[in-house]
């Protein structure tokens, strides 16, 4: 027994130095990691017989196939007095039946197959998507193509969509954040289709034939890009796609309506909406930049440092140091087809409204006065570079990214060069970008709250335009 105890003591003594060394190595302050290497997966690009580009990425992990159709259309093409038309087209394409299949039968059949077909139209892109088990692909593809190219626009479903839109308009002023988001967009893009929102009059005036005409103008095989991923046989898939979309046809060349770029005029304005709430919703911003601006990468880094992270300057001062708000931040929405926007936002108690605004404006202005610190710059670049891979989390997102590059006219090697371009950004680049794209003295500023409780008069912020939130919508 004594012998065993002695042996155990020797073993423990021998292990002790190793444990201490391991403990020293495990100190997180001393751990180093090699640079993160990540190769962006490729997708194959082919042309169907009809001339439609298709991006393919096979993945057999699950017996599922996904398709996204990107269509060159958008709410910017709504005719005058018909704001809401494109959105209704995007909704009723799917909900209103297609190819002679009634809405009810389509719903039942897709549910039975555990398949999904969805459609929508945003500001500058329309999408129709398909998700299905591989064994049900052929039938789901037929429904998908009918929704995409041959929707029936059931009159009954149009009326349902109209009533839903009007009900949404009736409730549009219930949420102060919704008011602020809507009004800052209208202010930044005043006079441009991006700044137009649906109204009761425009939605009520839309006729079924207008949906048919709008769809027929934009939804055609020479105006669509497909992105396909999942568990498919390449040869079988291409055969089915060609059979579904047919051969090339002689048609008049597509001419999209000319939509000008938004004006870059930057003038200050305070827009106030009275709402008897304890918190003030604050949004401030102005036009930003597009994907073609050479300072794009510097702006991405600027974005992170100023208001795009939990350690950003806005969050650190407004939330952490001052305790004025739970949510605060800013963001450059980089325009792809049209000039984007810069918007800073927060919500704070009414009694600290003006204080919060002045602090935010001062922090934003500070970005234009001196270079960012090395620690801020390095943290921003490392985060953006290292988080890049999360944009390619699954095959569907990978192949759709590739299709979107072509849709918006990006350089073919944009993604491959992105991380290197971010890594090259210097403090001087960030300062130059801030001076070019940040204009805190010329913000469109939207305040939704009760000015009677503010810590200073609204007029102290500039010339005020008060919104009338009364709705002219019949009950």
Describe the protein's architecture and organization.
The structure is a single chain. This protein is of the alpha+beta class and 475 residues long. It has 2 domains: 44-245, Metalloenzyme, LuxS/M16 peptidase-like (Cytochrome Bc1 Complex, Chain A, domain 1, 2-Layer Sandwich), CATH 3.30.830.10; 269-466, Cytochrome Bc1 Complex, Chain A, domain 1 (2-Layer Sandwich). It is 42% helix and 17% strand. It is built from 16 helices and 12 strands. It has helices at residues 2-25, 85-95, 103-113, 137-149, 155-170, 176-188, 200-205, 208-218, 234-245, 296-306, 313-321, 353-366, 374-387, 395-408, 414-423, 427-437, and strands at 44-47, 53-58, 64-71, 116-121, 126-133, 224-230, 269-274, 279-287, 325-333, 341-349, 444-449, 464-466. The strands form 2 sheets. It has a 6-stranded mixed β-sheet with strand order 1-2-6-3-5-4, with helices on both faces. A 6-stranded mixed β-sheet has the order 9-10-8-11-7-12, sandwiched between helices. β9 and β10 (341-349) form a beta hairpin.
């Amino acid at each position: 027994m004594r012998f065993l105890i002695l042996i155990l003591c020797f073993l423990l003594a021998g292990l002790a130095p190793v444990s201490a060394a391991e403990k020293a190595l495990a100190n997180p302050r001393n751990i180093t990691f090699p640079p993160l290497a990540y190769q962006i997966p490729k997708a194959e690009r082919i042309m169907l017989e009809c001339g439609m580009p298709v991006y393919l990425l096979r993945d057999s992990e699950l017996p599922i196939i996904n398709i996204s159709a990107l269509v060159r259309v958008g709410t910017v093409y709504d005719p005058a007095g018909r704001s809401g038309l494109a959105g209704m087209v995007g909704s009723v394409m799917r909900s209103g039946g297609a190819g002679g299949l009634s809405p009810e039968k389509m719903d039942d059949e897709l549910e039975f197959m555990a398949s999904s077909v969805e459609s929508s139209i945003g500001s500058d892109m329309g999408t129709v998507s398909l998700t299905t088990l591989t064994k049900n692909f052929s039938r789901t593809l037929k429904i998908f193509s009918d929704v995409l190219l041959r929707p029936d626009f059931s009159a009954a479903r149009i009326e349902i969509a109209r009533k839903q839109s009007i009900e949404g308009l009736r409730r549009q002023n219930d949420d102060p954040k919704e008011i602020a988001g809507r009004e800052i967009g209208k202010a930044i893009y005043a006079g441009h289709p991006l700044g137009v929102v649906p109204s009761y009059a425009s939605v009520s005036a839309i006729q079924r034939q207008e949906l048919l005409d709008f769809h027929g103008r934009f939804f055609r095989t020479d105006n669509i890009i497909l992105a396909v991923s999942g568990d498919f046989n390449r040869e079988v898939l291409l055969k089915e796609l060609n059979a579904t979309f047919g051969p090339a046809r002689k048609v008049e060349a597509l001419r999209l309506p000319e939509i000008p770029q938004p004006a870059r005029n930057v003038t200050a304005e305070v827009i106030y909406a009275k709402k008897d709430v304890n918190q003030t919703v604050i949004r401030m911003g102005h036009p930003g930049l597009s994907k073609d601006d050479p300072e794009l990468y510097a702006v991405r880094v600027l974005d992170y440092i100023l208001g795009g992270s939990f350690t950003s300057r806005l969050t650190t001062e407004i939330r952490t140091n001052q305790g004025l708000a739970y949510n605060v931040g800013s963001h450059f929405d980089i325009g792809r087809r049209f000039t984007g926007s810069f918007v800073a936002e927060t919500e704070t108690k009414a009694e600290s409204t003006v204080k919060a605004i002045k602090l935010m404006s001062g922090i934003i202005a500070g970005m234009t006065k001196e270079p960012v610190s090395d620690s801020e710059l390095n943290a921003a670049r490392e985060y953006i570079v290292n988080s890049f891979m999360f944009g390619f989390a699954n095959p569907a997102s990978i192949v759709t990214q590739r299709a979107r590059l072509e849709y918006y006219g990006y350089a073919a090697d944009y993604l491959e060069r992105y991380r290197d371009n971010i890594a090259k950004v210097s403090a001087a680049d960030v300062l130059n970008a801030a001076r070019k794209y940040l204009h805190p003295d010329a913000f469109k500023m939207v305040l939704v709250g009760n000015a009677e409780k503010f810590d200073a008069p609204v007029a102290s912020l500039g010339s005020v335009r008060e919104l009338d939130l009364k709705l002219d919508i019949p009950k």
